[in-house]
Every structure is written in structure tokens, then in C-alpha cells.
Amino acid sequence: MTLTRDRKSELLAGVPLFDGVDADGMERIAAVAVPVDFPADHVIARQGEIGTGFFVIVDGAVRVVRDGTTIATLGAGDFFGELSVLDGRPRVASVLADGPATCLALPTWDFEAVLRDQSSVAIAILRELAGRLRDLTEADRH
User: Fold this and answer.
1) What is the four-CA torsion angle of 36, 33, 23, 9, rounded to 10 degrees?
2) What phi and psi, each to the nearest 5 degrees, are found at residue 72?
3) What does the pLDDT look like over 42-97, one tens digit per residue?
4) Taking the CB of residue 123, how many other CB atoms lie within 10 A of it?
5) Alpha carbon distance 103, 113 (integer Å)
6) DSSP category for residue 89
7) How many other β-carbons are positioned within 10 Å of the β-carbon of residue 30?
8) Spatial distance between the Cα atoms of 56 and 95, rounded to a whole number of angstroms
9) Residues near 110 by beta carbon (within 8 Å), at least 6 away in sequence
10) Where are the beta strands (DSSP E) in 1-142?
11) Alpha-carbon distance 63 to 34, whole Å?
């Protein structure tokens, strides 16, 4: 699938991870995002391996599988692989295309360069991850 930079910016702007990113930041992210088509059942990310990129689903769906059990299905607008990219540790689950799927791939080295150059992107991601942590922490109290 071929996507213009404007279309990539539009798709990425809909991702909660990038809430609060200004237009310049979105432009930088879109510039390094590469559309990739995956056939059905293709392993996009493998549990236990260090991630070399993170992905935003453009079209289709993926299965998130941990220790052989499907724990989630993600679709257009969802993202995965960000934790391994951010912390450099092995992936906690595998992700497989659930039928043909198209993703925007953000290679680790390019994504890190954007984070260094665009503070609004780094702040937006910190806020999203802090929100997730807060939700998990508060859920444990109830």
C-alpha cells in the first residue's frame, strides 16, 4: 500500500500514543514511518526478541499471542511494539497478522531520533504511558 506523507500524518494523529503531538512532530513521525503489508499469519513481532520497531495498524487486524495464547486482537488505529522500542528489552508477546494487514512501521533508530529532536513527541508518549501505568495501578486497588 502506498501512502502519502499527509495520509501517514493523518493516520498517526489518530493514535492515542501521539495525543498532544504538534504538527511538526507529526510530520517528523510520518517522514520516518514506512507502510508494510503482511500476509495472513505472518509473525510481525516475536515474543522474547528485542524489537527493532513499532507498528501502527492501518488496515486489517493482528493477534497478540503470549505463551501460545491469544490475549488480544488489534485493528486499524491500534499500535504495538512500543515497549520494546522504548526500553530495549525483549518483546512480551508475539504479534501475527490475522488475515492480510497493513501497518506503518517506525524503526527504532528513526523513532529515537524523532524523540530526541521533537520534545512534544517525547512528552506525549510519556503522558500516554503514565496514563496506562496509572490505570493499571488504580485497577489493582479495586
Assistant:
1) -10
2) -165, 155
3) 999 999 999 899 999 999 999 999 999 999 999 999 999 988 888 889 999 999 99
4) 14
5) 20
6) P
7) 22
8) 12
9) 32
10) 34-38, 43-45, 53-59, 61-66, 69-75, 79-80, 94-97, 101-107
11) 21
- pLDDT of res. 141: 61
Question: Is the model more confident about 59 or about 142?
Answer: 59
For 130, the grid coordinates are: 503514565
- Which residues does 102 contact at the CB level (< 8 Å), separation at least 6? 1, 35, 36, 37, 38, 57, 58, 59, 60
Identity of the residue numbered 112: E
Q: Which amino acid appears at position 11 of this protein?
A: L
Please state, as a whole number, how many other Cβ atoms lie within 10 Å of the Cβ of residue 122.
16
pTM for this entry: 0.87
Nine-digit cell string for 123 = 512528552
Which residue's entry shows cell 530495549? Answer: 88
Grid coordinates of 26: 507529526
Which three cell numbers, joined as nine digits, stand for 44?
510481525
- In which band, very low, low, confident or very high, does the pLDDT at 140 lie, cut at 50, 70 and 90? low
Would the pLDDT of 110 be above 80?
yes
